[in-house]
Amino acid sequence: VKQVACGEEYTLALVEGGNLYEMGQILSGEQHNKTAPTKIEEVRIVTQCSAVDFIASCVTEHGDVYTWGENSFGQLGHGNTTEYSKPKKIDTLTTVNVSFVSCG
Fold first, then answer.
1. Please, what is the Cα angle at 56 between 54 and 57, to 5 degrees?
2. What is d(CA 64, CA 46) in angstroms, rounded to the nearest whole number?
3. What pTM does this model have?
4. Where are the alpha helices (DSSP H) in the chain?
């Protein structure tokens, strides 16, 4: 394991090779509760991840930023207040090569 990031009821584990795994519950409801490490298929070759409370984010080798979780105040950066149970790329950052992200 290369990195671990923890939210309130949610954990991310980044392993060598860039695969990202999730455990726990990022959104309310049992359909989102993962009791065992589950590979996140929506992102490839992750270099860094972060989590806090009920939100998560990660950066890929190409500098793309993905966020997901609760979004009551637009904190995920997608220009809306929609909750996302799976990673969604922040489109407005596609022209910027991001190397690090932090939730807080």
1. 160
2. 9
3. 0.94
4. none
